[in-house]
Write a structure and sequence with these properties.
Blueprint lengths: L5 H22 L6 H7 L14 H26 L4 H9 L2 H5 L6 H11 L5 H19 L6 H24 L4 H18 L1
Helix pairs in contact: 1-3, 3-7, 4-9, 6-7, 7-8, 8-9
């Protein structure tokens, strides 16, 4: 069998991480096997351990990738916004497009219930917590509230409403209730920000 170059190994590793990042958000951390991940990357199961020591390691790395991609999308949204960063974020986050694209959407929402079931020692828990904290900081950065403690409390409520509404909208997709969750939460968040 021909030997794979270091460059090809690096490309294969990045492909596994990218595919895993999407599949974990779409199907859940435990809804995808190593076989599934490797097949989706166009590789054989046997090559997995040449890249990662365990599925737990890949789960943490792929989750970090998803969080980094989400932060990049946030920056794109902010750059596209003409004036109200928060309103633009809310409209994008609570859109039917975002609801219907879990594999490319917010990993905080997509992975919440799975991460909650993971043991405390699992590396994905720390990665997830860092991601939640970073999202809170991004929300604080667009807040008009000057005092630190009231601002923090306000963004905790905003984040809870954003994540909860998206979670419920995804769980009820196909029913009119799904759109109602998105619209009601969007209106509540935008009206409260005015």
């Amino acid at each position: 069998m021909a030997r794979v170059s270091k460059q090809q190994m690096a490309r294969n590793r990045e492909e596994i991480i990218q595919v895993s990042s999407q599949l974990f958000r779409e199907r859940g951390l435990n809804g995808v096997s190593v076989n599934d991940l490797m097949a989706a990357a166009g590789l054989t199961h046997g090559g997995f351990y040449g890249h990662f020591s365990s599925k737990d390691e890949l789960t943490a790395i792929a989750s970090r990738k998803a969080l980094d991609d989400s932060a990049s999308r946030w920056q794109e949204i902010r750059h596209q916004s003409q004036h109200d960063d928060f309103r633009t974020l809310v409209e994008a986050y609570l859109s039917p497009t975002h609801r219907d694209a879990a594999k490319d959407g917010c990993p905080i929402t997509a992975l919440a219930s799975d991460v909650a079931r993971e043991g405390d020692a699992k590396p994905v828990r720390d990665v997830y917590l860092e991601g939640v904290k970073a999202l809170l900081e991004r929300l604080e950065s667009v807040s008009d509230i000057q005092d630190a403690e009231p601002r923090r409390q306000h963004v905790l409520v905003q984040l809870s409403l954003l994540l909860g509404a998206l979670t419920l909208a995804r769980a009820t997709a196909g029913d009119a209730l799904s759109d109602a969750f998105l619209l009601s939460a969007k209106n509540a968040l935008i009206d409260a920000a005015v």
